[in-house]
Amino acid sequence: MTPLTVLGIESSCDETAASVVRGLADAPPGKILSNIVYDQTDLHAAYGGVVPEIAARAHAEKLDVAVAEALRAAGLSLVGVDAIAVTAGPGLIGGLISGVSCAKGLALGANKPLVGINHLEGHALTARLTDGVAYPFLLLLVSGGHCQLLSVEAAGVYRRLGTTLDDAPGEAFDKTAKLMGLGFPGGPAVERKAEGGDPARFDFPRALLGRKGCDFSFSGLKTALRVKLDGLRAQGPVSERDQADLCAGFQAACVEALSRVSGKAMALFCESHPQIEAPVLAVAGGVAANKAVRSGLEAAARNHGFSLVAPPLALCTDNAAMIAWSGLERFARGHTDDLSLTPRPRWPLDETSKPVVGYGKRGAKA
Amino acid sequence: MKHEPMTRGHSERLAPMVAEVLDDAKVNVANLDGIAVTTGPGSFTGSRLGVSFARGLALAKEIPAVGVSVFEAMAHVFDGNQVVVSLTGKNGALMLQCFERNSPTTEPLELPASIAWQTLPMAGFYDGIGTEFDLLLSHAPEGVKNRGTAKECQPITSEIIAQIGLKRLGQRSPLPTPLYLRAADAKPQAPVMLNG
Ligand SMILES: Nc1ncnc2c1ncn2[C@@H]1O[C@H](COP(=O)(O)OP(=O)(O)OP(=O)(O)O)[C@@H](O)[C@H]1O
Ligand SMILES: [Mg+2]
Asked: Which of A126, A155, A191, B83 is most open to solvent, judged by the fewest CB atoms within 10 Å of its CB?
């Protein structure tokens, strides 16, 4: 078998990214030949969140530049590429349209097959690209727009075990930072503030933990934070200590929710896959950058006899290497799209699961 | 040449249409020497779609991509001495650009109708093409009003864009970028004061 070489393109949120990956779909891990990410954080910082029109404008002027750089860094031209993979959803429609259009231009111009990829599948298969994790495995996706537990049964077969019913954790971190004026993106800022804070001083709700299933809820945390902050403010200036304690309490509640619900999912996964000897919990998404989250999940995995696979941080957040790898797996299975490929702002990985009503301020993706 | 009017659905149709047009013309992609694309003003999404596709194709083929604005295309087909192109903007505003024999003499701008006339050439007579010339003149003082006449301009087609692209192939043009004329709609966040 000869390895495949795939160009990946990603523009579903606020990173414009292109990457070239080489490998065998049946024999992961793959090799990342280049991984270019143009981050738009500076463009959005003043607005306290991603502004869709600003993101779309930046993507349209950067996509081909990122592709050219990824090819150069990989030492290839398009002739040396077997397929062009592009994120076709879910995400912000403006960026998706630019990415898909650019990929179509490339595919038509270079006469190469086009493969549309679900961004969530990109995150889901990162553990295969980096660590060669075998199917089936359990995945926790914790990002700015998602919080899902998925059983990745086989190539392209996903079973959703649980999802957030309201906000995603990254979104909750971002809103917390916004309320406290800590800057954007909020996750790292809240994590820094939480250092040295007392997580026990304020009482944050632990929503849904008593319930059966593997669903999450994070919007109550945000409300609790606002109420506590307003209470402190009414009494005078909110001190550094108060801020640190608030952030620590909020973060601890997130970590507990993520670890405990993942624990339930690990138990379910073992029930439905009794033959697996060394089960894996893979984690993906920007919130996996959080050290407290990582150690919470590590402990939970250990308790359930799982090993935790957390990709390097650069591959937890949005990137195109994960899109190229997913494209490689799909292309190897004979899947391609034609030039009428249409971006989908909503695109659940497990299309058989019920959509969750009222989900998501960042584009209702579940 | 092909065209299909659409309010939505560009995203599916543009690339297949380009492939069909090449087929109909019996031209292999391999033989293309350049690609020209409209940059706007118009639908932001539509402009991005076309520009992104053209830039992708140009990169793959290592051929030039040429961006042509609606103003440039209209001035080109009308081909007059002094031409003012005006289009309908947002919230009663006008989008306009002035040309002298096909060369722009002002930057493309979006302005309130009440002051847009100030960008008109101060000497000579000019022809006004586009949708908003009458509105533009209705705000102008007599001395300015008397120097312009509204004229008809034939509709812009992809053929016209391609012709302009062909003319510019030899020149080194910058990569096409969408022409918005308007900043993105977003308000900066007010600062949060916690300890003061
Ligand atoms: N150290 C951290 N602690 C907590 N959250 C973090 C940390 N670092 C990043 N984040 C959060 O991760 C999110 C960004 O991650 P990512 O790029 O994976 O999400 P996204 O692309 O916005 O969402 P999606 O992939 O679901 O569309 C942001 O909400 C950010 O605040
Ligand atoms: Mg993401």
From this structure: A155
